[in-house]
Amino acid sequence: MDKLEPRCRKEAAIPHLFCPGCGHALVLKTLGRVIDDMKIARQTAFGIDIGCSLLAWNFFDINTIQTHHGRTAPVMVGYKMAEPKSVALAYVGDGAAYAIGLQSIIHTALRNEPITMIVVNNENYAMTGGQMSPETETGVITQTSPRGKDMNLGAGLKSPELISSLGNEKAFIARGSVANLVELNKLIKKAIENQTKNNSFSFLEVLSICPTNWRTNAKDSFSRLESMSKYYKTGIISETTKEVN
Ligand SMILES: Cc1ncc(C[n+]2csc(CCOP(=O)(O)OP(=O)(O)O)c2C)c(N)n1
Ligand code: SF4
What's the whole-model pTM score? Predict the structure, then answer.
């Protein structure tokens, strides 16, 4: 196995199925390194959505569950109820999470269900060809906003902040970016530990790049990511100060 790949990576699935330069691969490799470091590969259940996240169906050599569009949170809540000693991860795109799936996430957060959600925010519905998502910022051009997203369609939804406002004091809520994989590694670890140590809900949004639908080269992808992080601020949004058990 290539030393740059996490140990929990499925060797037969190299190279991955994402487009060249896709941010999903960066998020997943960082997640894999955390799973290696925490030695939790055997107890982890990895739930994926419909969207480009489904291209991770064979990324890891760990138990993986394919769910319906926007329904990864309730599926993983059910899994965790059946297997309380497992580490339940829900890996979702921003369209699925914040449009069709938002109500599920809100109630998962309110009930402090002990799962860890990672939402990859590339500001579009990538798998279906780059339509506008709730995260698309005002003025941004997509397949369904060819003249730039109209202000009347709403500014980009700051979902981690929204979820934080629900008042679950045991939740860990943060936003990272594929522009800073060292920080992302730390945030993923904290998000998983809030499940394993505190038996509580965690929510991590990751700002990511989609060169195919953004129609950007590597340099322009990261310039756009930098501009995204001015609107969507990275870092910890809320975390519990005391351990629950
Ligand atoms: C109930 C339902 N509605 C719509 C779709 C069509 N659909 C498949 S993938 C997708 C977009 C996914 O976008 P996102 O969740 O942002 O993930 P990305 O592809 O950007 O990673 C949609 C709308 C579907 N499969 N099921
Ligand atoms: S369409 Fe975008 S998000 Fe999907 S695999 Fe390609 S680059 Fe990644």
Answer: 0.97
- 232, HSE (Cβ side, Cα atoms, 13 Å): 30
**Which residue CA neighbors atom 6 of ligand 2 most closely?**
19
Q: What is the pLDDT of residues 79-135, one digit of tens each?
A: 999 999 999 999 999 999 999 999 999 999 999 999 999 999 999 999 999 999 999
- For the CA atoms of 225, 194, 164, 106, the dihedral, rounded to the nearest 10 degrees, stands at 100
Give the distance (Å) from ligand 1 centre to CA of residue 69.
6
**From ligand 1's centre to the CA of 120, what distance in Å?**
13
Nearest to 60 by CA among 76, 44, 72: 44
Please state which architecture CATH assigns to domain 11-238: 3-Layer(aba) Sandwich (3.40)
